[in-house]
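chain below, 75 aa
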Amino acid sequence: MKEVIEVLNEVKPGEDYENATNLITDGILTSFDIVTLVSLLNMKFNINISVMDLVPENFESASAILELVNKLKEN
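prediction:
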């Protein structure tokens, strides 16, 4: 989880990512932020987040992002 939060802080510092549960719904992360986040996550975790993975549910919280990363690392 720590690594995901570090990446989130690179994209948009100063948010409480450990407790935030509506990053997309509340407008904390914009579409541009998601593009940047996906790129950084792909590089950091050596994964490939596809267009099919780009749904709000996968990016609403740090734990949802971690779940996505772990799922993609298994494949």
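The chain has one domain: 2-74. Residues 2-74 form a domain with the Non-ribosomal Peptide Synthetase Peptidyl Carrier Protein; Chain A fold (CATH 1.10.1200.10).
thats it, cya
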